[in-house]
Amino acid sequence: MGNFYQTLQVRVSRIEHVTPLIKRFTMEALDGSELPPFTGGSHVIVQMRDGERQYSNAYSLMSSPDALGSYQIGVRREEKSKGGSAFLHDKVAEGDALTITTPNNLFALDDGAHHHVLVAGGIGITPFMSQMHELRKRGASHELHYAFRADEHGAFRDELAALMQQSSGGRVSFYVDSKGQKLDLSGLLGGMDAGAHVYVCGPAPLIDAVRQAARDVGVDPSRVHWEQFAAPEQAGDAFTVVLAKSGKTVEVGAGESILKAIERDGTVPVECLCREGVCGTCETRILEGEAVHFDQYLSDKEKAAQQTMMICVSRARGGKLVLDL
């Protein structure tokens, strides 16, 4: 079932311009106490209010899990922002208070891996920052492959290089698209030994390419881990959702999520923190029909079981779903 997140108030103690599109926000507890512990790859959900509008966005923690005096997140201003990244970039200043959730980790390092291959694209570098702190502390063997469009968009390169210098078992490679530098995924994944795991975070095309390359070279899917904090574009045919408890029937449009359709109808309250398929708070039991799952919260086994779904991103396979709402 969905996580029961706790929320806490933090103060933005520092804002840094890292690239033309990325800012780093450092946040501290209002009373100066230590923040809750987390592991590499964890995220928090930042809840924001802008007048009558509310936003909830998940952001990876990029600071060291050993430095709990503050949390750090990196935020890219999205060209098609739905409000969250634009709000943080344009309206949040040093000294402002924010509400965040306690950390959760859906992108943890595999404890049984003998080697860790990290593949980042653009702002997808952020979860690897905290993971690399953890790998350095473990003394674990790892390599980072970081691709970005141009030199001015390569965030945190100096810090990454410094982390690697402090690590006895790691190496880093950068790939700048404007210079024609390409990452050979087939060669990279085809050369992994049986004890290695690969982790990818970044734009959807990069994630899809890594997963496909892993399939092509025979890497077991259990050794491939991925994370993307962006709701997929809602696409597909319209369908009908029957809300069994309330006796309501809701029509979901071709470009609409089930959650938005229920909210538009306005009669059944549904809790959802992230709206990106990562937090688990909108997990809903399926009574009839099948879902096409787009979330990152349920395991592959849970998705195949068709018992529950995340209504903020997932859709119906067919024309009708009956949900326990």
Structural features:
325 residues; alpha/beta; Rossmann fold; Ubiquitin-like (UB roll); 3 domains; 6-stranded antiparallel beta sheet; 7 helices; 32% strand
Please give a structural write-up.
The chain has 325 residues and is of the alpha/beta class. It folds into three domains: 7-101, Beta Barrel (Elongation Factor Tu (Ef-tu), domain 3); 115-227, Rossmann fold, CATH 3.40.50; 239-323, Beta-grasp domain (Ubiquitin-like (UB roll), Roll), CATH 3.10.20.30. The chain is 20% helix and 32% strand. It is built from seven helices and 18 strands. The protein has helices at 84-91, 126-138, 157-166, 185-190, 204-216, 258-265, 300-305; strands at 7-17, 22-29, 43-50, 53-60, 71-76, 97-101, 115-121, 142-148, 170-176, 196-201, 224-227, 239-243, 248-252, 283-288, 291-292, 308-310, 315-316, 320-323. Strand 12 (239-243) and strand 13 (248-252) form a beta hairpin. The radius of gyration is 20 Å and the shape is globular. The mean pLDDT is 92. It catalyses: (R)-carnitine + NADPH + O2 + H(+) = (3R)-3-hydroxy-4-oxobutanoate + trimethylamine + NADP(+) + H2O; (R)-carnitine + NADH + O2 + H(+) = (3R)-3-hydroxy-4-oxobutanoate + trimethylamine + NAD(+) + H2O. One of its GO terms (molecular function) is metal ion binding. This is Carnitine monooxygenase reductase subunit. Belongs to the PDR/VanB family. CntB subfamily.
